[in-house]
Structures are given as C-alpha cells and as structure tokens.
Amino acid sequence: MFALFKRSAPIDEFSIDWMFSTFAWALENFDAKYFQYETELILPEERFFPGSFDSANAMAKGIFESVKTHAGLQHWPFEFVEPERFLPQPVALQQQLVPGKRGGSAQVTAYNAEYQPLTLSYQPQQINKPDALASSYAHLLAQHQLFQSQLSVPGGEAYTAQATEIIAVMMGFGLLMANTAYTFKGGCGSCYNAAENRQATLSENHSIYALAMFCALKGVDNKLVLQQLKKHLRPVYKRSYRDIQSREQQLDKLKALLPLA
Questions:
Q1: Rounded CA gap, 39 and 107, in Å?
Q2: pLDDT band at 1, cuts 50/70/90?
C-alpha cells in the first residue's frame, strides 16, 4: 500500500540503467584515481574561474584555460583560436596522448613530425553566458578525450553525445551543465538567440540525475548544490538524489570502482 506514495524517479528506468553503466564505463576508462582524489564540483565562482579580462576573446580564452585545468587535460596540445580566424578541420589521432589519464599522469610524450594541434574556438554570442561557455568547453574536451581513446560508448554510437556529456559531468561540470541544459525562449522570438546557449543532448532531468550521481559518489554536500542550482531544478535534484541512494546495489558497484585510499 505504501508503494502508492513512493515518489517516482525523474527519468525512466532505461535511462537510469544506461547512466549507471556509463558512469561505470567512464570510471574504468578515464582515470578513476583522478576522479576520486582531484575532481571537484565546479561552481560559477571566482575561485574556479579567476582573472579579469580586457576583451571578449581574452575572457573566452581565460575560461577555457580554467576548464582545461579543472578537467585535468592541461597537458593536452589544445590550441585556442579566435572565432574570426577559426577554420574547422578534421581531428587527428594523437599517438603521444594518454587519453585514459588526467592530471600529471596525462603528460604528453614527444611530438612527432606529423603533430597537429587540437584546435578549438567558441561561439562569440556565448560570451554573455559564461556558464554556457564553460559547459560547452567541458563537453568539447570530453569529446576530444573520447575520440583519442577510440572507445565505444555504452549503448553504441547513437549515444556518443550523451556519453560525452556524462564524461563532462564526471570532470566536475555537472552543475554548470544542468543549469544550462535548457534556456527558456520567452514570449518574444526576437529576444532569443540560440547561439548564446549550450547545445545540450541530455535533458534537464537527465543532466540533474547525472549531477546527483556525481555528488553521491563524491560525497558533495547537497546544500552546496541546491544553493547554486536554478530554483526550478532543485526539487528534481532532491528526487534524483533520493532515487540514487535507494539503488544501493547499483551505487555500491560504482563505488567499488573507486580506488582505495
């Protein structure tokens, strides 16, 4: 009888199983030690994104440098290019990279004669929304990490974009990604600029569930999360966190993949 009053999970069971599997896959392949001991929940605060800038390009580059450092990919050969000079080109496999490692253990070996930098840029309109810009960078870095690893994602190729968003969440950017997963267009079409917003694949509820899973694994204080989340997302986060905690067997399997102190 009491089951009638149990609050349902905010996403469907298939998505929940896929998300647990994808978190496990990421822990097995993308440096669980760094996740355990170095990764933080990144907040939209000065201590995570320091610096003052005298131009939009300088600000965009500064945010990228912060994202790259927090992601543990500061040693990768990324080349930031201003939008007006950026020419998209095919990404080359970099044999000198260690895509399964982050931080100090991700040091790059000597470049060969065929070396090509990993060039990237940004949407100029996103400079007005630093959270969306940082989230877009995090997702882009996750895409690069997956491409260099040449791994298949859980569920197959159709889930590549979703899986790389999960990787970005596990890099610590889940709160920023949840807050930028959806932007209300308002009643005036001329007031809405799609280019300002992050192009999300996971829905708000799916992003929140992934954030809650990160926080459950990392032992993040829920009060800290709720203070920073958009108001309408807070009830979804609470439901997600309760649901994850109720799945003790699945959660314990994830925790077992974390290195011991």
A1: 17
A2: very low
Alpha-carbon distance of 42 to 46, in angstroms, equals 11
Half-sphere exposure of 136 (CA within 13 A, CB side): 22
Give the side-chain half-sphere CA count within 13 A for 227. 8
Instruction: List pLDDT tens digits, range 106-129.
Output: 666 555 555 678 889 999 888 989
Contact 75, 109 (CB under 8 A): no
Which token pair is 12?
């469907």
What Rg value do the Cα atoms of the chain yield, rounded?
A: 19
Does residue 48 surpass a pLDDT of 50? yes
Q: Domain boundaries in the chain? A: 10-255
End-to-end alpha-carbon separation of the chain, Å? 43
Angle between helices 13-29 and 204-218 (to 10 degrees): 50
